[in-house]
Amino acid sequence: MKATGIVVEYNPFHNGHLHHAAKAKELSGADVVVAVMSGQFLQRGEPAFADKWTRTEMALSAGVDVVIELPYAFATAQASEFARGAIHLLDAAGCASFCFGSEQGEIEPFLNSLELLNTKREQYDTIIHDRVQTGISYPKALNDAYLSLKNSSSRYADLTKPNNILGYHYIEAAHAVNRAMAPLTIQRIGAGYHDPLEPGVAIASATGIRNAFFEGEELGELAPYLPTSSIRLLERVHAEQQGFVDWQRFYPMLRFTILREGPKALARFAEVTEGIENLIHESAKRSETFDVFIARVKSKRFTRTRIQRMLTHIFTGYTQQEAQAVKQPEYIRLLGMTHNGRRYLNERKKAIPLPVISRAADLTGSMGQLDIRASTLYLQAIGADSLKKEYTTPPIYLGDSSDK
Questions:
Q1: Where, by residue number, does ATP bind (predicted)?
Q2: Fewer C-beta neighbours within 10 Å, C or N terminus of the chain?
Q3: Which residues contact 378 (CB under 8 A, 6 or more apart)?
């Protein structure tokens, strides 16, 4: 059997994700779609709207065959590390290709961009260093350096777009890990990353869907933008945990942690740099809500995404020392599979170079223990009935009629 890989968060799984999974299989000619999915915390430094098992079931109900978890250390990292971890796992799972959605819609500009930056790496790094010294954010420095090298040529990918940026890093990682794994891209359609919901448009952004719900929309009113299976599963989790998850719900625990640790201790957590620990601590003292808190901390130099990643690491206790020890994924944590996915894994099991983990109890290393810690803290913050859920939830299996 042949597999293609996708990197996802499904926060939540909507019609755009349904289109992506179907097109990935079509373009690659694969029998199986393998998704590497972030767990309870996401790349933009946010707790997931719904837990990882709910999001896994959404995916399996709508065209994905295997869902494996991207470890916390990569899932909450900057784009290059996020991509490196995900591509490493797709390669370990035996994927012949990987497919990502992009604003570009064509693969050739990404390959040209990779060649450009590899050829002019020293010049690129120098420009980044010089731009950061002026006080701008690191992402802005990266973009300035890239624009100066490509000189407005249309041969290269537009790396000002969020999905194009991730796509470039996927290709960069695949070039380092396994050049035989073919990169594919599909045109991102419908709403942009941050766009609000638009009546009559079936493909909305996950951000727009989440914002609409938190602003008072009922789940039934979001039905045009999500598969029926996603609506059903979201209704279930909404009833079980009295709502969905955002930083506002986590803020009391986050604020307690910040105030308890104090500025000096905050500096030991991953990505907390340049003295911002003092501002974080002072803002927590003065802010009753998360929105007020984040408005006080973000700046031209420290983007909201960068700050949220710091806060995620403070919340989970992920230190600079732990981050420096991360090399590459050490296991494949299986979250779920369909009948077709199980056939593929059984066929490939002797060729997979990493241990395939189906029980949290088998996660014995520091990377696995971090995943357990992060998930347990997430469950605590949402008021889950059992903090043992991380240990007691088996991989979700959606079989066909022959399994019944």
A1: 7-20, 101, 163, 188-189
A2: C
A3: 40, 41, 47, 48, 51, 245
pTM, two decimals, is: 0.93
Domain closes at, from 258, 291, 317: 317
Q: Which domain holds residue 136?
A: 117-157
**Residue 264 belongs to a domain:** yes
333 within some domain: no
Annotated binding site for ATP: 7-20, 101, 163, 188-189
Residues annotated as binding site? 7-20, 101, 163, 188-189
Q: Are 244 and 211 in contact (CB under 8 A)?
A: no
Give bridge partners of residue 183 from the DSSP assignment: 98
The answer to whether residue 294 sits within a structural domain is yes
Q: For residue range 6-48, what is the model confidence (pLDDT) as tens digits?
A: 999 999 999 999 999 999 999 999 999 999 999 999 999 999 9
Number of domains present in the structure of the chain: 2
